[in-house]
Amino acid sequence: MAEGAARLSLAVALLVLGLKALAYLLTGSVALLSDALESLVNVAAALAALLALRVARKPPDQNHPFGHTKAEYVSAVLEGVLVVLAPLWIAKEALPRLLHPVPLEGLGLGLGVSLLASLLNGLLAYHLLKEGRRHRSPALTADGYHVLSDVLTSLGVVLGVGLAGLTGLWVLDPLLALAVAGQILFLGYRIVRESVGGLMDEGLPPEEVERIHTFLQERIRGRALEVHDLKTRRAGPRSFLEFHLVVRGDTPVEEAHRLCDELERALAQAFPGLQATIHVEPEGERKRTNP
Ligand SMILES: [Zn+2]
Ligand SMILES: [Zn+2]
What's the 254 CA to ligand 2 centre distance in angstroms? Predict the structure, then answer.
């Protein structure tokens, strides 16, 4: 499913790149060139996301017993790096034109083609963000935000270049190109920051940990004394939980183990993608005094 979204985004990115490159060739506008470059980054990003999802989907194996889901973060970091390279090219093309503005041609057709590309991209962004949230996939979500900001940028570029055409203020073209470059840089920063959280074993949000805690307390009522020291970490669509389960000191191992297996199963059902590991303790380890 998530892979379907990645494949779709690759196809759309290629189409949009073609349209934007055409818009640039028709007009010679550096602003439209920078817009096309952003699409080139999109194509590379979609490819990286697709490869990462292929890897992430592989089941746990001997040297990756916790699965391969973190491959998604690696792909998002790669995307961030790519995003840094595009602005350098834009600066190289746009800076000379600040001093010597170049009149543009074929604006009507070029801008029309660019608008068509943005329409396609807008539909794609909406789809990616929806799927990314549904699958808790950082690669898809990063891709979705990327495409969305691409749409906003493109609309700004079309407006600005159109204005330059109407007024003859051709210096607007390189100025817009540089603005796009800055926006691409900011985007790269955001993508990298989000993914580094996952690579650094960031825990689940506090509200979710609290929900898990409440869920466990209800489940153990009458069979164990308390749960404490909940620790979580997330890895793409999967997340991991460790906690201590305090039982009466004379509880048979068989009974405690049965409860653990039940809790692990119930947790995986109530919180999809969550895998729990439970440490059993006798009542001397209790942290609270109330029952
Ligand atoms: Zn403990
Ligand atoms: Zn067991």
Answer: 10
Distance from the alpha carbon of residue 258 to the mean position of ligand 1, in angstroms: 19
Domain 2-199 has CATH 1.20.1510.10: yes
Torsion sign (Cα): 87, 89, 91, 94: negative
Model pLDDT, residue 2: 62
ipTM of model over 0.90:
no
Domain boundaries of the chain, sorted by first residue: 2-199, 206-285
Low-confidence ranges of the chain (pLDDT < 70): 1-2, 139, 194, 288-291
Pick the CATH number of 206-285 from 3.40.50.10710, 3.30.70.1350, 3.40.718.10, 3.40.630.40: 3.30.70.1350
Expressed in angstroms and rounded, the spacing between residue 235 Cα and the centre of ligand 1 is 25
Distance (angstroms) between ligand 1 centre and the Cα of 255 equals: 19
* b/e 32-71 (16+ beta carbons within 10 angstroms → b): bbbbbbbbbbbbbbbbbbbbbbeebeeeeeeeeeebbbbb
pLDDT value for 247: 95
Taking the CA atoms of 11, 13, 18 and 22 in sequence, report the sign of the dihedral they define: positive
